[in-house]
Every structure is written in C-alpha cells, then in structure tokens.
Target: Multiple sugar transport system permease protein
Amino acid sequence: MNLSVRDWDLIGTNRPFIGLANFVELFGDSLFLTALVNTAIIAFGVMLLTIPTAMVLAGLIHYRTRSRFAGFYETSVFIPHVVSLVPAAMAWKWIFDAKLGPLNALIVSLGGSPQSWLFDPNLALFSIIVLCSWQALGYAVLIYLVGFRNLPTSVYEAARLDGASGIQAFRFLSIPLLKPITLYVSVVTLVSGFNVYAQAFVLASDSQGAPGRQVRVLVLDMLENAFRNYRVGYAAAEAMVLLLIVLILTGAQFALLREKGNSK
Model:
C-alpha cells in the first residue's frame, strides 16, 4: 500500500508521495483496462467451466467406478494440477498451433476450417481459459470427492425408496448439499484465475514471438510496468486494485452462501 501512493523508479532512493495519482492514472490507461477486462473474462470463464465439470466428474468417479479403479481415475485427473505451468503451456501451444496442431487437424478432418487459436485475440482468450480450466480441474475434482464421500447416505437411500433416479438425486440432493464445497472451489478458482500469468505469457505470444501480447492480463501488466517501465508505484497501485477485486468477490460469494443458508 505504501508504494502505491508513491512515485518510484526502482533504482533511485527518492520515493515522493503522490497520493492517489497512480490510481487516477490507472483508470485512464487503456492497457490497464484491457488487462483488467481480459483477466476478469479468464477468471470467470475458468470458474464457470471448472465447477460443473469437476462436480460431474467427481460424481462419476464416486458412484460409477469400482473401488479398485477409483485411485487410478483420481490420480489421472489430478496430474494436470501438479504439472509445471510452463511445460503445460508449451504442450497446449502445440495443440493449438494453427499449422501443426492436432486440434486444427481434427477440425479439418471433420470438414471445418482451421483456426488461428493463438493469434486471434478472442480465440487466444478462449485458449487460455481452456488451459487454466484443465489445470484447475484435478484439484476441484478431489475437493468434490471429499464432499461426496461425506454426504449422508441415508438421504440418498430415502430418495431411492421414493423412486428418485440418479440424475434427480444428483440435481436435488448432491448439488444443494455440496454448496459449501462449491463456494470453496469457486473462491480458489476465481482467485487463481485473477492471478493468471504464465499461461498468457507462453500461450498467447504475438506473431513476432513477444510473449503474452495477444492477451494482456493484469499480472503481466504489473510486471511490465514495474521491471520494464520502472514504474514500481504504478505497478503497486495495480496490485492494490487486484487485491481489492479479489476481496470483494470473495466477500460477495460468502455473503451469497450465507443468504441462501438463512433463507432455508
């Protein structure tokens, strides 16, 4: 917070106090606003894609797999979460490659047209969401598995006796009972999405190879301002905005859950 209200070039010892000037300049900076919008789209896109997918996969692993194979499926799903970000991004960069990537090869084989996944800004944004969701999925699945294994079996037995199908039990029992798990996963996924950096840095390079230029994200903008433009105070103001956004979103999610809990 102290640096965000000062003007510092990273090298000198003089750090004059400039008040809210950095924050005022931020919201007139088109690059910052673009980075903020892109980051928000990625964060919410990852959350909306990860949560339902993770819940369904966890339910399938819990209810539809034999116990001796459950560990194999859990490990397989969790592996992307522990893979280093840069190697994973490089692998997905090859998958999305316009000329040599298997994704475009599949699209062409189905009669479609190849896409510039990494050079079209909108498609590059979508590509980052897919990569981030793939990496976040394993952790979310394991957390949901913990939730499924702690659900009261008596409730499901009663629903089965009343003639409820598996899908109905999942919709009307599992989803409501797993709301605390969903809250936790949504907060973790959303915060992680707002801190996206390596995926955009590697995946969304421009046609000249400059990293991250096709999709500018908030952390990349912060680092460029701090260590390339030597505007540490300005970058610190961006960090404070990011912190405030994360706190507001987290508080809103907890308030929403509490309101739903009180309405019952």
The two ends are 41 Å apart (CA to CA).
